[in-house]
Structure formats: structure tokens, C-alpha cells
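User: Hi! I'm working on a homework problem where we have to compare a predicted structure to a textbook description. Could you give me the structure for the chain below?
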Amino acid sequence: MAGHATEAHPHGADRLCDAGDRVYSRAVRRGRVPREDADPVPCLVELALLHPDPDDMRWLVPTSPQEVMTRLLREMHERVVATQSRMGAAVAAFEWYAALGGGERAPAEGVAIRVLDGLPRIRAAMDEATEACASEVLAVQPGGIRREDELSEGLHRALALRGRGVRMRDLYTHVARHGQGLLTYMELMGDAAEARTLDEVTERLIVFDRTVAFIPASPDRTIALELRHPALVDYLVTVFERLWRLAIPLTAPLPDTGIEGITHRERSIAALLAEGHQDAVVAERLGISVRTCRAHIARLSETLGAASRTQLGVRIAQAGLDGPPRSPELQPLTVPGPESPTGR
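Assistant: Happy to help. Predicted C-alpha cells:
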């Protein structure tokens, strides 16, 4: 029976096991359960059926099942729609190419968009582009802390580029600063590579010599697009350059939020919460886990003196955390406490 296994949960975050059902039922009856009760059943937190109590991080409170069901169904619907869109685009593209087959024009040296299905084909295309690259590589690396295997997988390409004097510029999220793997990688690259970070970046992007770009075409990144159309590549380069100007060099510290007790990451979370995003979306965009995101939200609630999510939204707005950092003369330096007349 599920839930009686001694090993980690074998199932994903799309169903609830018997052990999880018992803990969740107990949480609904009692209003909350101790955090340690949920440790053996991580599916509860992954399904967002339980989340930290903002008033006491040692406890977990239940989420409405209707809310969780709505979220799961919406995510499934979005995946189906995205798949249908990719299928339609692929069919339209190949129909267009097929129509060119009977013409008198000689075939072009390469196609504008090439679908790379499977990691072997993606790696082969990347190796080919690396060998042909002569001057510059631009890369956007989303997500959080880069794993050692992710960095080592492309290390041979980076070393080959450095040996030919190719300049490399990489964009990461701020979270990546906390990984030793990235710091070690940058030391190996020396002056050949430069890295900057942002709260959020786009999906993965790699551009070689501003002539060929690679972007993912599936959520698990097992399908990619190789783009050689000049207009598409120029557009992606422009996006990269604008993000690069906004980003903070890896060697420079992150700016202070200007509000005592609020970290830079908490400011980023507060701004996304103010836009109405759910915890899972906030976590994905900032490159952190949902559990870490909720821990930050609980700390933010404590710092701002908010007793509920609704009150947290009010306090975020009062503290000026609902948008980009303001100029020092406009940004409030204190937050309303529980005794404030606006704190109710």
C-alpha cells in the first residue's frame, strides 16, 4: 500500500498516497499539523495541500482542495495547449517547405528553423556551432543554483571557445550566486567569460556569433530549435543586450532593499505576490523551490506584521514593495507594525 514504503516517495506531485491522505485529513479536522508530521509524505507540500503557517513556522495549515484542483487542471490544460501549438507550428512550417520543393530555385544552404528532437541531436548541433564560433557567445541560464553536472556537461565547449579567444557573456538569476559550481566555472574561464545576474531571466538561450541561436522547444528541454533566420537571431540578441544592461555583475554585491529586515530576494517575492502570482509561479520565476519560497513568504509576513495573506498584500503595498525599487527620497524606510492604525 502506498505510504508504507520505507524509501522516499516514488510517485510525483500529481496524486496523493494513503499516508498523505491520513495526514491531510488530520490537518483539515484540526486546522493544522506539526511540520514533522508531513516530513514522511512530501507529496502534500509538492501538491500544495499543506503550507507553512505564517504565524508559526513549526506548523503546516491545509489548503483548500478546490484551489489545488483548479491549479493542477490549469497546469495540465496549459501543457496541452502548448503541445498543440507546437504541433501546429511544425506542420505549418513543413507544409511551407514542401511547397517550395517543386520550384526552380536552388535549395538554401541551411533552413531558418531546425527542430532538434532528443538530447544527442541537440548536443551534436551545439558542438557543431561551437566549432564554427569565432568571436562571441551569449547565453541565458534560467533556474536556480547550477548543478555540477550541468556545468561540467558543457565545460568542454567553453574551454574550446576560450582557447580560440572567444568572448562569453552569461546571464543567471540572483539565486545562482549561491552555488560554488558557478564560481568555480567562472574561475576556470578567467577573462574569457563574464557573468551577470537578475531577479528573473528568460528561458534558456544560447547565441553563437549572432548568427545561430538555440532555444528549448519543450518543458523538459529534450527538444530544441536551432534558429538561423537573421531577423529572429537579431531579435534574441536585442533581448539579451537589454537584459544585460539591467543585470548586476557577478562580482558586485546585490543592492540593499533600503528597508530594514527585508532582503533582496524577499523584495522580489513581494513584487510578484503583488502582481497576483501563486507561490509555485513565484518560485519558478525566481529559480527557487516552492518550499523555500513559502519560507521566505512566512518570514516576510513576520517582518511586515501580517497575520494573513490578505493583510500581507496590504502591507506589501504600504511598504512600497509592490514594484521596482523607488528613489531613496520616495521609498519608505519603515513598515507598519501590528500596533499601527493601518495594520488592521
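For your comparison, note the following. Confidence is low (pLDDT under 50) at residues 1-6, 103-109, 326-336, 338-344. DSSP finds 13 helices and eleven strands in the chain. Good luck with the assignment!
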